[in-house]
Structure formats: structure tokens, C-alpha cells
Amino acid sequence: MLNNTLDKSVSNSVSIIINIYRLVYIINQVNVSDSQYVGIERRVIMAVFYRRLPRFEYFLPKTIMEALSVLKKHKGSAKVFAGGTDLIPLLKRREIPTPKSVIDLKGIFGLDKLTYDESSGLSIGPLTTISALTRSQVIMQRFPSLFQAASSIGSPQVRNRGTFAGNICTA
Asked: What pTM value is reported for the model?
């Protein structure tokens, strides 16, 4: 047990030292004057820091009425998302102002339905993932262009989390 803990501690220390050397190496590879060096060092360090999400209040409503209530209460200071494949990276990179609250719609049951009938056509719910489109026999057979487009979006992880409606909203 002691050796295992000691091995982990040594491994973590070595990992930290390697990362520091990588950082120093990157900084040393840049041939700039001292006044520019400070800015570059800051950018490298901030790149590591930006992998974390900023602080915000997170809501996971269970009904549409709950979501609307939270949205009304936090009017103008909230962001709504379903998949988060666009919002989360933007927040991590600090490319948009940090909202005071984030409302995740994934907890609302029934909004992920994908249905088709001859009389009313295709209905894609707002929480339908891109993966759901690629697994649907109806989409494959009746809407081959949509199937092809959905199949070509991002990685499997993005397709599993990202929603069709969200991609339309942020396009």
C-alpha cells in the first residue's frame, strides 16, 4: 500500500515537472523581446486555465414550464442549451461573456422524439441528438440527404451529445 501511494506521488510529481519543462520549452522557442515575452507567457498559462468552465448557476428543469420559469427569473443573464457542444467550448475559451446561469434542457422528458407518418411528415424534437438521426431507419430510407449530413457532423462524442435543433440554432 505504501509503495503504491509512493509510486503515485512520484508519478504525479514527474508529470508536473514534465509539464513545467514543456511550458518552459514552448516559451523559450519564441524569439521575442522581454516586453513581448510576458504576454506570451500569459497566453500559454491562460491556455491551460481556460480548459475549466467559469462559475455559473446550473439548472436542470424537468418540465417546459420549469424551464420557462427559470428563464423568466434569470432574464437576460441566462443561456439555454441542450447538447452544449457549442456553448461549453465557448465558455471554456472565454469567447463569450459568462452567463450568471445556464439552463440545461436535457432533463425535460419527451423532447427527444423523432416521428414520421405519411400524413403529417417528419417531426424532430428539439432534444433529438444527431446520433438519433443517424440510427433512424426512417431518416436513412426517406431522407438520405439528412442522414448523410448528420453522419458527417463532428465526432461520435459530438453526435451523441449535440442536438439537431441546437446545430440549426447556432448555424
From this structure: 0.65
pLDDT digits (tens, 9 = 90+) for 55-100: 899 999 999 999 999 999 998 899 998 988 889 888 888 889 999 9
How far is the CA of 163 from the CAs of 57, 68, 72, 84, 157, in angstroms?
A: 22, 19, 23, 9, 12
Q: How far apart are CA 152 and CA 133, in angstroms?
A: 11
Q: How far is CA 128 from the centre of its chain?
A: 16
Cβ–Cβ under 8 Å, residues 111 and 81? no
C-alpha neighbours within 13 Å on the C-beta side of residue 119: 0
CB 140 within 8 A of CB 132: no
